[in-house]
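Protein folding task:
====================
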Amino acid sequence: MHYVYLLRSLSDHAQTYIGCTSDLRARIAKHNEGGSPHTTKYHKDTQ
């Protein structure tokens, strides 16, 4: 099964990211750990 997901930045609510994955839990964890260059710049710990 594949998932399409939408993320909204906690630090900048105007920033959103749409992605797809077959392992949703792992993909969200990767985003939260800073493992995606598209969302890392809006990560709340980098502000």
